[in-house]
Specification:
This protein has about 250 residues and is α/β, with parallel strands linked by helices. About 40% of the residues lie in helices and about 15% in strands. It has a single domain, classed as Ribonuclease H-like superfamily/Ribonuclease H (Nucleotidyltransferase, domain 5, 2-Layer Sandwich). α5 crosses α6, α5 runs antiparallel to α8 and α6 packs across α8. It comes from Sclerotinia nivalis.
């Protein structure tokens, strides 16, 4: 009866939902250390190996002495495989990098890691790997500027930047450190209000504040870039039995 009335009801036809297709997306229920994204970028002219877990965006980074495949593989083992839960199931990386070398693929195959290369031609993969190190680079530059009088080693500054990124809530409101280890950063009981320690704390806080602003700007850009369907109000307001051109 309702279907029959809807065929003759003017208001129903005017305000009803437009025709469309039923769509849904099936996502894999992946955990930490299932798929790790690899990339190499430069800070102060030095190559940095950057690893990001796709499931919870947990970061790890280390400076590279050179760009040989053996050095890259040993660095991957040092800062991820031998540090956390062992080898992941998949490594994903951009095309044309050192990860495409035969030696690197042989090393991953020996410990049952499958490698996936992001094709250059895929329009939807542009920036899929590069988008992760924007916050890390920003955090590094802030801490380096805040602690320029301390003359700290670049590796120490890099690890402070990595921790600042991991301890900051991502756009989904999740803290990577809490998801991986089950606890947040430990609070100390004693007063360590020395000048050096206070400078480092303030530098990390400044970096985390900037990272939050980056996440907010990214969320706003995603919302502004979202496009709805076609505007059909004019079509719905057309009178019945009107001649149209097809």
């Amino acid at each position: 009866m309702i279907e029959r009335l809807s065929q003759f009801c003017k208001h129903y036809q005017l305000h009803s939902k437009s025709l469309g297709r039923f769509r849904f997306t099936i996502k894999n229920d992946i955990d930490f250390n299932y798929l790790v994204i690899l990339d190499i970028f430069y800070i102060d002219g030095k190559p940095v190996l950057h690893l990001v877990d796709e499931a919870i965006s947990y970061n790890a980074a280390i400076f590279l002495k050179d760009m040989f495949a053996k050095t890259v593989w040993n660095s991957v083992r040092k800062c991820w495989i031998d540090t956390y839960l062992g080898p992941p199931d998949y490594f994903i990386y951009d095309a044309g990098t050192n990860f495409s070398s035969k030696e690197f693929k042989q090393n991953t195959c020996m410990i049952s890691i499958e490698v996936c290369e992001v094709p250059v031609e895929a329009h939807n993969s542009i920036g899929k790997v590069e988008r992760y190190y924007t916050s890390l680079r920003c955090s590094y530059e802030i801490i380096q500027e805040e602690l320029k009088d301390e003359k700290l080693d670049k590796e120490i500054i890099l690890q402070m930047a990595v921790k600042a990124v991991n301890d900051t809530a991502n756009p989904k409101g999740l803290v990577s450190t809490l998801l991986v280890f089950g606890v947040y950063s430990r609070m100390i009981l004693y007063d360590v209000s020395t000048s050096t320690m206070m400078k480092r704390v303030e530098a990390v806080r400044t970096a985390m504040k900037e990272i939050r602003e980056i996440y907010v700007r990214k969320s706003i850009q995603d919302v502004l870039g979202f496009r709805n369907g076609s505007v059909i109000y004019d079509i719905l307001n057309l009178p019945f039995n009107l001649m149209v051109q097809i």
